Amino acid sequence: MEAFDYLIVGAGFAGSILAERLARGSGKRVLLVDRRAHVGGNAYDHYDDAGILVHKYGPHIFHTNSQEVFDYLSRFTPWRQYQHRVLACVDGQLVPIPINLDTINQLYGLNLTSLEMDSFLAARAEKREVIRTSEDVVVSKVGRELYEKFFRGYTRKQWGLDPSELDAQVTARVPTRTNRDARYFTDTFQAMPSRGFTRMFQNMLDHPNISVLLNTDYREIKNLVPHRELIYTGPIDEYFDFEFGKLPYRCLEFKHETHNREFLQPVAVINYPNDYAFTRVTEFKHLTGQEHPKTSIVYEFSRAEGDPYYPIPRAENSELYRKYQALADATEGVHFVGRLATYRYYNMDQVAAQALTVFAQMAGLSRAEAIELEYEPKLTAVTFPLNGNGSHAVPLRKRRRAVATAS
Ligand SMILES: Cc1cc2nc3c(=O)[nH]c(=O)nc-3n(C[C@H](O)[C@H](O)[C@H](O)COP(=O)(O)OP(=O)(O)OC[C@H]3O[C@@H](n4cnc5c(N)ncnc54)[C@H](O)[C@@H]3O)c2cc1C
Fold it and tell me: What does the pLDDT read at residue 379?
């Protein structure tokens, strides 16, 4: 059986980036294994039966403030500039979310200025001595009525919990704007891989030192494949056979549909905070820019059971995670990386940054150096005579090839 330096579990952002850096950066031999039928993890996209590029596990929009992460990923894909906009269906109207000046004016039939909107919200905001829960965050900023219209129902559907039962951090990230900025994200870099995420992953993993094994749980092969170290990007509680109990996750169900018309909705995502069982509907062509006479959409339903998607942000869950983290810290030869192995809701760029940092630590370099690292086979094994002028008889590029062939 072939021996590997690293067995990497999970071909999402965390596993694939580490595979790429270890192989291309350090010359390590890597086996990347995923129990799904594809690479890309939750960011996987593919062409559906109608030939439309869709995201199997819900809409993924790339956004980051990190020049380093953006430059690194740009090695594997060209980008399509894309600014994400979301509307919420409230009181029978489609209005911008995050709440901005247009949201309030449209919803209440007003014509407020930015300054007037400040006073409008201030008059409704409820004073809270301590901000503890998600309800506190929103009610103290925009008041109870907007909280009920935009946040309460959505949060209950999404998390199966009332905002009063969830940590403040869940809604703390959602801004309220008194201007007309309707962008969902405000990061410096916002873009979609021109040919899709999966193509980007395929380019990343296209290296002779990387072997990819799909449809395989790593437990089926871990004792059969010799390897020096393990990189694990799956659920941390599962790794330790749920020794302290299951870490709670919110799960998702996706219902994909194709419609025989060019577009169904004005933007990529419409949220439904109060109506219907689904939380939101995504129309992919807005994200990808694909031109096609038909259109594909996905409905998202939040569920208590199923594949793990969102760690549930409550104090007792963080406590439970810390017990697993202590076990992980004491486990030699295994690196725990990514959203499931660190039980955190991370965006793609955050997972990318985490994986690059882990690689930098392994290589004993700064992150900037680790990103630039290119493995060169050792040249000492074969010697070449020098010409009279001191140059090598074999030009450098050919010489490398000669060494590679010789080894
Ligand atoms: C609905 C949804 C929408 C999102 N939208 C955005 C967005 O717009 N922008 C953004 O930046 N981020 C978004 N994210 C977050 C993004 O999906 C994650 O940041 C990213 O996918 C995490 O990568 P990862 O490698 O840590 O995990 P994953 O992508 O989950 O990869 C882990 C892989 O490990 C495999 N695995 C687990 N256990 C085993 C095992 N025992 N054996 C073999 N394989 C195993 C799994 O099959 C999986 O493929 C979204 C997440 C969700 C759920």
Answer: 60
Question: What does the pLDDT look like over 194-212, one tens digit per residue?
Answer: 999 999 999 999 999 999 9
Q: How far is CA 154 from CA 146, 149, 163, 347, in A?
A: 12, 9, 9, 20
**CA distances (Å), origin 23, targets 19, 80, 146, 210:** 6, 28, 51, 7
Tokens (6 digits) for 24: 């291309």
Gap between the Cα atoms of 60 and 98, Å rounded: 18
Dihedral sign computed on CA atoms, order 129, 134, 139, 142: positive
Helix (H/G/I), strand (E/B), else coil: 9: strand
pLDDT per position as a tens digit, 334-391: 999 999 999 998 999 999 999 999 999 999 999 999 999 999 876 655 444 444 443 3
- The string over 264-285, giving b where at least 16 C-beta atoms fall within 10 Å of a residue's C-beta and e elsewhere, is ebebbbbbbbbeeebbbbbbbb
Number of the ligand 1 atom closest to the C-alpha atom of 14: 25
Let me know: does 256 contact 59? Beta carbons within 8 Å.
Answer: no
Domains of the chain: 4-80+194-247+311-363 (3.40.50.720), 86-172 (no CATH), 378-407 (no CATH)
Ligand 1: does its nearest atom lie under 6 Å from the Cβ of 311? no
pTM of the predicted model as reported, rounded to 2 decimal places: 0.91
Count, residues in the chain? 407
Cβ of 58 closer than 6 Å to ligand 1, yes or no, is yes
What is the pLDDT at residue 399? Answer: 31
Q: How far is CA 144 from CA 39, 62, 334, 393, in A?
A: 44, 32, 48, 79
pLDDT of residue 396: 34
> Is the minimum distance from the CB of 250 to ligand 1 under 6 angstroms?
no
Element (H, E) at 270: strand 269-271
Cα 9 to middle of ligand 1, angstroms = 12
Judge contact between 17 and 359, C-beta under 8 A.
yes
The region that residue 363 occupies, defined by phi over 0 for left and psi between -120 and 50 for alpha, beta otherwise, is: alpha
